[in-house]
Amino acid sequence: MQVVMMLLGTHDKIGDNAPKEDVQKIGGFAMKLASEGKLKGGQQLRGLEEGFRVASDGEVGRIIDGPHAELKELVGGYFELEVESMEEAKAIAAQCPHLNTGSVVVMPVVPRGQG
After folding, report:
1. Which of 67, 28, 62, 22 is nearest to 48 (CA)?
2. pLDDT grade, residue 11 (50/70/90)?
3. 1, 2, 4, 109, 115 from 112: Cα distances, Å
4. How many angstroms separate the Cα of 89 from the Cα of each of 16, 36, 49, 74?
5. pLDDT by residue (tens digit) across 36-92?
6. Could you give the CA distance from residue 57 to residue 42 in angstroms, rounded to a whole number?
């Protein structure tokens, strides 16, 4: 089964603001997952300074460029994983070095054609 593990953090701990030591630890974690055949993809994301948010007023989406004071946590990166079960996904997430500065959300991926 495929899952996506999203790394959430505050503005000062993700994207270009992420401490280099943390980025290196997460890189090592990714290399370990790759060597085990669990990592199928993933990437560090930049902060909202370079991205944007789209919100709806009920009918039409509108682009919201910062500031984003209402956002307490942002997605700073993600891993696409192949696991045997959600229990295995939980065990992997519990080892993620990002837990020292943020949180991790794991969600199963709906297989193509089943959504």
Report:
1. 67
2. confident
3. 12, 11, 15, 9, 7
4. 27, 13, 31, 21
5. 999 999 998 887 777 777 777 677 777 766 655 566 788 889 999 999 999 999 999
6. 32
For tokens 């943020």, what's the residue?
102
Q: Which helix (H) or strand (E) holds 6?
A: strand 2-9
Taken in order of first residue, the domains within the chain and their CATH numbers are 2-108 (3.30.70.1060)
Q: For the chain, first and last CA: distance in Å?
A: 15
Q: What number of CA atoms fall less than 13 Å from residue 18's CA on the CB side?
A: 27
Amino acid at 108: P
Residue 72 is predicted with a pLDDT of: 75
pTM summary value? 0.83
Structure-block tokens of residue 13 = 């701990």
